[in-house]
Protein 1
Amino acid sequence: MSAIEPMMSWVDVSVSVDITRLTGERLGENVGSTSVRFDVSAKLEEKERRSGMVVVSFGLVVRTKPNVAKYEIEGSATLSGKDALIDKLLKVDPESKIPFVFHRVYQHVFTAIYTLASLMGTTYPPPDLLFSGKQGIPVEGLEKSGQGGTVVPTAEVKPAVK
């Protein structure tokens, strides 16, 4: 079960994502049908807070194993809505140790990574790399079938937000 109460809707808080840096590096040849593992490192830090609005900076590094590609993304997300709902989105899921706001951030980040990977001719992580299928809840250590093989997210998030 999610720590976010069932009556809370994702539309109750607006999340605007601004990607400020996106890099990709091809580390080896595309492995095709060989099993690929995606390791994820992430960080989130609160930068500004006003009534009804919070700005957080984020960083995300996605690496493949075997070494095929590495993607690095940095940016900020502006959350707007009721303070209590914003605070719930900034809380860390006790199971995955990932703040719930990464649901929205990763949606935008995935599109950028997918485009970059397509241009580079490398493999890309699946759109649900950090989340379970039905409820979109971040998970850690869950194996899934992804593009090119197995996905094992190992996210480490050190939020500065409480």
Note: The chain has a mean pLDDT of 75.
Protein 2
Amino acid sequence: MSSVLITGASRGIGRAIAIEFARRGHRVVATARNPRALADLNISQRLALDVTDDASVSAAVAAAGDIDIVIANAGVTFYAAVEATPLAELQRLLDLNTVGAIRLAQAVLPQMRARGEGKLMFMSSVMGRVVLPPNAAYAATKWALEAIVEALAIEVAPYGVQAALLEPGAVSSGALDNVTTYTLPDDPYNAILRNGGQRAGIITPEQVAEEVADAAEKPQLPLRIPIGDAARALLAARRAAPDDVPFIPTNYVS
């Protein structure tokens, strides 16, 4: 069985992934900024890990020992029209969702290269391929992640290491229940904000976890792994659409 390190495992998708890998008999190292939130998980190891902090990431990776599979799952979101987006919050989002994932990869890659094997799996989103207001900031962090991981996959392949992007659609993880929203006075984008992004075909964290574990257990990772039927349909429609106008799915109404 493999040793699996998961970030953002205190709730939602990360927690479900930790439970699923443990159920399948893997050695699970679950991490969160507050490891006390992991106390009730039946797993091998619980560690503090803040992906925005170099020392925290280094300490967790050292404590975890040999890691076969990394699930870089930690992430947050907010809603705002581009004009209303606070730039400091955009930078914070990038640091957590994008830079944090790469910080973790940099910490585990030396051991994976030395062994000549390892799997790096990054939680992206359909928003890493499609943009739907008012999710521009979140989508930007995932588009950036997709670019970096695509390059990473090419770079590490000669060393036996694989990298993949996980692309779920809307998930009933609780993360979308009370999303922080930034607005303008007498906001002209109010209709878009009311819509709150694309949530058709919502799936459970457990469904995500099952598909992630299925993919991780196969010998070869595809670069991109859509998760859930709605995500697969949306991404197929995006691939078929022209690039000369913005892509708006038929089930998205502003």
Note: The chain has one domain: 3-240.
Protein 3
Amino acid sequence: MKKVITILFALVLALSLTTVALAEGITFALVTDVGNIDDQSFNQGTWEGLVAYAMEKGLVEKTGYAYYRPSEDSDDARVETITAAVEAGAKVVVLPGFLFDAAVMTAAEKYPEVQFLGVDLSPETYPANVTNIKFTEEVSGYLAGYAIVKDGYTKLGFLGGIDVPAVIRYGFGFVQGADAAAKELGVTVAMKYWYSAAFWPTDEIKAKMDSWYADGTEIVFSCGGGILNSCLAAAEEGNGKVIGVDVDQAYISERIVTSAYKKLTVGVKNLLDKLDANGGTWPADIAGVNVLQGIKDGAVGIPTEAASWRFATFTVDEYTAVFNQIADGTLVISDDITTQPATMNVTVDYQN
């Protein structure tokens, strides 16, 4: 009997050691595009998803997981940085942003044993060791536009970064939501709409926002990472309000009334869980394709926490009602990014 127990103990110990060895041998890495993990928006939300997953697995930062930033804004630099992560032991590399469109293809072919997770990449198909997360940003944009107009704002602005699909979906959704609320209230709304061609603060953006607020714009949807800094600076001087993007940005400034978010943290963690459950490679149904995260996944919307709810009259119950209409298909929001949305009660001044 004692011999049997000894054998069983040895088997359990061997299995335990195997599990530990696997855990210690798996390194997760995130490579940023041109931003950093403290951008309070896209990169940070993605990084926090990786961190949440890594902590759940008991991994230690800089040995179990780490992030890398390219030395310059080029495909070569991005591939070189991915290479550095792989040579450091990374078996899973997270790549946030459309700037990785070309680099991910090169890296996936170069390192077929490495699994890549893109976020908001543009291609429709990829090698089998790549999966990409996309979001229904038009839904978040719609809900933000709807809520703001229902709360009494009638002079709006949309400040986009670079006019990539995700930004356009946010913007066109914002227009649709504002128009729906304006029709319900029987009011007319004016909206200024502009892409800044940057995801970082610039003097041009600050000057543009200064002019918008001076001209009577009450609130601006700042949709593009670091451009929020320029928008907020103008809002401070012009006594205006702002809508955040990608994550709940209420903590940054009291002037941020709400945020049109996509739960990057949740999306990244969900996909890494699927990878883990499949033994470290992408399951066949999501390998080499885009995986859409939407309202039914709880991945898009506006924050409803008390600290982030800064509407004067619009209520959580009203929000929940329209949210549920979208979720059950009663209300359909167009995801078309090729044609400007038709409106009845919103006049949009497209400035590009």
Note: Confidence is low (pLDDT under 50) at residues 1-26.
